[in-house]
Amino acid sequence: MRTPQPTAVERLKTSILNTALTTHYECWFNPPSAIAGGIEGPTGKPTPALIPNSRVDEDYMLSCVEASLPGTSLATAELTNDHTGITERHVHRRQYDTTASFTFLVDRDYKQIKFFETWIGYIVNEQNSSKPNYFYRVNFPNQYQTKIYINKFERDYKQPSLIYSFLNAYPISINAMPVSYDGAQTLKCTVNFNFSRYLTGASTVKKASYPVTGATDSSKWIAGAGRIETGLTASTNSGAIEGKHYMTSEKGLQAQVAVDELGKK
Predict the structure, then answer these.
(1) C-beta of residue 104 within 8 angstroms of C-beta of residue 187
(2) What are phi and psi of 233, to 5 degrees?
(3) Which residue, among 1, 129, 107, 131, has the nearest Cα to 57 in the 3D structure?
(4) What is the pLDDT of residues 155-209, one digit of tens each?
(5) Residue 101: phi, psi to the nearest 5?
(6) Is 175:163 a contact under the CB 8 Å cutoff?
(7) Within a 13 Å sphere around the CA of 39, how many CA atoms are in the beta-carbon half?
(8) What is the pTM of this model?
């Protein structure tokens, strides 16, 4: 540890006194194609917009008067028997906040309320029916999820901005908005978004020495893929594919006949 030394005031002004301010940011919500119009992901076909130009309308960004940069934590497992008298906690997972909240000033056209009510209504495929036997069928996640952004910058625009990207985000709730005959106040709408995780330029990444992505399409899954002889989960589906080829071959069919014969005895 270094010995304490006197520090000039000018140095303090350029270091600890040069702080980031909470009042300079912008939020972009990038609604899905069904809301803003464009090419719908699952079908690849053009779809009409429920709220035209909502993807490029800056009113939603400018009216967002409050947002929160996301939090994160590490989940640990407690080890008590490895070393005498020592309790250790080893990390096994990174956890993300489940929701991000955004507060908007509502204009006289109630544009902000209509926008998020439409988005939530589309998620459950709502039809605004008052019939007693009304029901709805929820849309698929890739139809209503999107990527939203918080761009944090400073008033002099000299520093690189800090961008948070929320993956697989969608509005999960709208807070109640009280109205009253008491002193008039601006109506505010708070919307809570759910997301799977976030990416940010705040972290310096060291490239992993192992693959970090894999197939996510379960429609091509073949029964039988799973654990290999070591007890670890197989990284590919090749074992199941080979098994399927064997069972449809001549030897495989003969083996099935033999098993059936044994079952009859």
Answers:
(1) no
(2) -70, 130
(3) 107
(4) 888 888 999 999 999 999 999 999 999 989 999 999 999 999 999 988 888 888 8
(5) -110, 140
(6) no
(7) 2
(8) 0.72
- Which tokens is 136 given? 């709805």
Please tell me the distance from the alpha carbon of residue 62 to that of residue 27, in angstroms, as a whole number: 8
DSSP-derived letter for residue 30 is -
Nearest C-alpha neighbor of 169 from the set 148, 184, 150, 190: 148
CB 225 within 8 A of CB 239: yes
Strands 72-79 and 88-96: antiparallel
CA angle 118-57-162, nearest 5°?
105
Residues 116, 174 contacting (CB under 8 angstroms): yes
* 136 CB-side CA count, 13 A: 14
Q: Strand pairing partners for 155?
A: none
CA dist 73 and 137 (Å) reads 35
Using alpha carbons, select from 80, 79, 105, 102 the residue that is nearest to residue 90: 79
Give, in order, the Cα–Cα distances in Å from 107 to each of 64, 95, 112, 123, 138: 12, 36, 7, 24, 30
The DSSP result for 120-132, as a single string, is HHHHTT------T
Instruction: Compute the radius of gyration of the chain from its Cα atoms.
Output: 27
Query: CB atoms < 10 A from the CB of 52, how many?
Result: 12
pLDDT tens column, 44-99: 677 788 898 888 889 999 999 999 999 999 999 999 888 888 899 999 999 999 89
